């Protein structure tokens, strides 16, 4: 007997795909926001920080509903994307990735912001006096030094998206093969009597993937840190 | 090279308002910690923006607040060496050294890597990472990195302050070679008098955000001026003459005469800078006999001023070289000292700009 039924394997694969996309796509904006929060001196910095951290404290259902209003077929952004690019978030796996990305965003920003703040500004100043434009300073000094934090943030975002439930089911519903991720599949199975074994299997799988992601991020970060420390 | 600075800056609890010029060579910004010296270094590098004023290097305006000009650091071509080195921890020594050279690539490049590596003695370190270097090695690499960007001015902000004395003694000769071999104009920020005497041509004394004294080092350091915040001393450029092996002594020749000092590792013909502090000079009105002091120099009193409730400072002309002496007012009265009077300067001790004695 195979380890997973086709339906379960489908949910698992979908979760991995959505996790990878949500973490990957949220990285560039998260990097920009983290840099602004760590190094920026501007009015509205606190406001930006509050908005970024909002998904962390809002009920996920509310976040999902907000996404539905904005990115749904009739929402301002959703309608625009559909008419210009024929691109849809609503009730598709891309929408699930968006929801997961938004929910994981504060965690990714947090990890990046902390690692940017840990970069000695004196090093960036030294690079500037040596002739590096601000963009080059970022690429040659800041970015290599925050690489451990960047990978940690990436894996954290990925792990978080594997567990996302509320915003996803609110925004893109529960469509097998499209938006039914691991947690939603578990929830669906729980509605049906006599599925205890399947629920247990999928739960164990969730735990395993999360543990691997979190440990992996620690391991990679530690190895990179050792490299930059030069020991 | 010419440098012209006239800037002002206000921060809570601190005001900086300084103006000085430098025709080139090594200009030392000297003063206590917190006087504002490092802020000036930051202003020169472009890391700090002044509230008002101008900075010109070779006639090029780098900062002119009233004209709205502020050249960012990466376009200034001013090399900076910081107290804490600031080597890039993720790059090898070689790639640290070449970092600025890479951006300088297009313009007329300075010395090749091999020259700088030789000048600073950092050849064996090239493939190592900064974390494995000693403090002294880090600073030599930092100096090399700044040199390789082909700067038109090098700003050294307390480059030795974080090091212990043996490490300082390790680096100072390299800085001297740098001064003598590259002729690169430098601004050297320090609160350590011995470093400044050894390296600088001109001295700008900073206190509480203001210039209290500035000029050629021999002139500024010999002023009896409480504002300079430093003990007055004559700074002499001398050449090592004959060495008396039997007694272990060397003669040092300078414009005003000859000094005899312990030979240590001195070699004939070696140029030296030395310092004679005012309190190490005594005065006699006739040539003294039966004295153990070896160095007795004929001199003429230039001027005198009170330096305290009981003390008088004298500036002496010793064959064109200015010596300074500090004696009690009582002695001055008893001896009948006055400007123009011929006297003998008794030099009790000489401090070298480098450890001459083992």
Task: Give me some keywords for this one.
heterodimer, A: 231 residues, mainly alpha, 10 helices, 79% helix, B: 358 residues, alpha+beta, 6-stranded mixed beta sheet, 5-stranded antiparallel beta sheet, 37% strand, globular
Can you characterise this structure?
The complex is a heterodimer of chains A (231) and B (358). By secondary structure, chain A is mostly helical. Chain A is 79% helix and 0% strand. Chain A is built from ten helices and no strands. The radius of gyration of chain A is 20 Å and the shape is globular. The N and C termini of chain A lie far apart (50 Å). The relative contact order of chain A is 0.16. The model of chain A has no long low-confidence stretch (mean pLDDT 89). Chain B has 358 residues and is of the alpha+beta class. Chain B is 22% helix and 37% strand. Chain B has a six-stranded mixed sheet with strand order 7-8-9-3-10-11, with helices on both faces. In chain B, a hairpin with a 2-residue loop joins strand 10 (202-207) and strand 11 (210-216). In chain B, helix 3 (113-120) packs antiparallel against helix 4 and helix 4 (135-148) packs parallel to helix 5. The two termini of chain B are 38 Å apart. The relative contact order of chain B is 0.12. The interface between A and B is medium-sized, with 23 and 30 residues.
Draw up the topology in text.
The complex is a heterodimer of chains A (231) and B (358).
Chain A: H1 6-39, H2 45-57, H3 60-71, H4 76-85, H5 93-117, H6 121-129, H7 134-163, H8 166-172, H9 182-190, H10 196-229
Helix pairs in contact in A: 1-5, 1-7, 2-5, 3-8, 5-7, 5-8, 6-7, 7-10, 9-10
Chain B: E1 3-11, E2 14-22, E3 26-30, H1 37-45, E4 52-57, E5 60-64, E6 69-70, E7 78-81, H2 93-104, H3 113-120, H4 135-148, E8 153-157, H5 165-182, E9 186-190, H6 193-199, E10 202-207, E11 210-216, H7 217-221, E12 233-244, E13 249-254, E14 257-262, E15 271-277, E16 281-284, E17 295-306, E18 311-318, E19 321-328, H8 329-335, E20 342-347, E21 351-352
Parallel strand pairs in B: 3-9, 3-10, 7-8, 8-9
Antiparallel strand pairs in B: 1-2, 1-4, 4-5, 5-6, 10-11, 12-13, 12-15, 13-14, 15-21, 16-20, 17-18, 17-20, 18-19
Helix pairs in contact in B: 2-4, 3-4, 4-5
